[in-house]
């Protein structure tokens, strides 16, 4: 009988929990931020290369299918930035011993997700309305 049981708990045994899902999302958003950071540096390098190169990049991305991917990528990057920042603050509070009990951990998790979605929606609204700071 012992040979049929797993040696350690496995993902198929336990019910998915909010805390584990948000932990996985935190890791995914960290990877997306790293990838987005590389793309952002590439964009800045093209911008620094002069107006001709930047106009060529804009011509390539604007008005094509790539433009749609760039827009979606921008919103994914902004959600990743918001979520990763807010969840990092949540973890700092946990490190200070604040909100470690299960009800508060779930409440703060939902608050982080909600605030990340709201901040991304506000950024999207601002970007789509054509407003500049």
Automatic annotation (TrEMBL):
One annotated GO biological process:
tricarboxylic acid cycle
- List the InterPro entries: SQR/QFR_C/D (IPR034804), Succ_DH_cyt_bsu_CS (IPR018495), Succ_DH_cytb556 (IPR014314), SuccDH_FuR_B_TM-su (IPR000701)
An example of a Gene Ontology cellular component annotation for this protein is:
membrane
Q: Which keywords has UniProt assigned to this entry?
A: Heme, Iron, Membrane, Metal-binding, Transmembrane, Transmembrane helix
Co-factor(s) = heme
Descriptive protein name: Succinate dehydrogenase cytochrome b556 subunit
Give the record's membrane topology: Multi-pass membrane protein
Cofactor note as given: The heme is bound between the two transmembrane subunits.
Q: What does this protein do?
A: Membrane-anchoring subunit of succinate dehydrogenase (SDH).
Gene behind this protein: sdhC
Quote the record's binding site residues for heme.
Answer: 84
Q: Where are the transmembrane segments?
A: 24-46, 66-86, 107-128
- Annotated localization: Membrane
């Amino acid at each position: 009988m012992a040979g049929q049981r797993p040696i350690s708990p496995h993902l198929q045994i336990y019910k998915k929990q909010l805390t584990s899902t948000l932990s996985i999302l935190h890791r995914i958003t960290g990877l997306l931020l790293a990838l987005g950071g590389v793309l952002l540096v590439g964009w800045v390098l093209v911008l620094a290369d002069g107006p001709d190169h930047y106009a060529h990049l804009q011509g390539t991305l604007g008005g094509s299918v790539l433009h749609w991917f760039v827009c979606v990528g921008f919103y994914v990057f902004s959600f990743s930035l918001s979520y990763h920042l807010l969840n990092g603050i949540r973890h700092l509070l946990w490190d200070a011993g604040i909100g470690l009990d299960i009800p508060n951990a779930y409440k703060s998790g939902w608050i982080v997700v909600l605030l990340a979605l709201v901040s991304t929606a506000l950024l999207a609204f601002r970007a789509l309305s054509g407003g500049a700071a």
